[in-house]
Amino acid sequence: MAQRNDTWPAPAHPPAPAHPQTAAHPQSPAYPQSPAYPSASPYAQAPGTGAGRAPSGLFPGPTRPVFREPHPVSAPGVMAGLGSALLWFGLFGGLADGLAAYVWWTIVAAITAWVVALVLALIGDRGVAVGVALASGLGLSVALAFVANAWITTYNWPLW
Asked: Domain boundaries in the chain?
């Protein structure tokens, strides 16, 4: 049950119903702003301070802050890392004379590429680090496909 609050005096008469044209104007006498007549809108502001409703989120309205990455990843950086790592894997793969040697050289190349990508991500260009990581995953996938093909066709694990 509601209790009476003595800090707000009861109105002498109820507020007059607002006319549709005067309801949008909080300063009009038909729509008084006082503690005795609380606002019908939860977003109403004091008279003379602006619009009486919150922005809908569409224009115009207050803009939201824009957050930007301090070190953005760019496409040229990713392509540079991808190309350099593919060259790296090609050079290591060229040292092999058989499938087992190719896979082990690819694993060595991947480990060194991961170390380089980690260093680049921490203190260098993140785009190049992403490209190196992509090429590392691609190189290991190719080596795994060759191992799986040899294992399926010969029923012999080729790495031992």
From this structure: 75-154
| Secondary structure (3-state) at 14 | coil
The number of C-alpha atoms within 13 Å of 11 and in the hemisphere containing its C-beta is 11
Cis bond before residue 15 (omega within 30° of 0): no
Which DSSP state fits 31?
Answer: S
Side-chain half-sphere of 105: how many Cα atoms within 13 Å? 15
**Which pTM value belongs to this model?**
0.56
User: Rounded to whole angstroms, how far apart are CA atoms 16 and 19?
Assistant: 9
Please give the pLDDT value at position 71: 78
* Cα separation, 160 vs 146, whole angstroms: 15
- Cβ atoms of 85 and 59 within 8 Å: the answer is no
3-state secondary structure of 152: helix
Structure token pair of residue 18: 């607002």
Conformation bin of residue 155: beta by default, left when phi > 0, alpha when psi is -120 to 50 = left
- Tell whether the model's pLDDT for residue 16 goes beyond 90: no
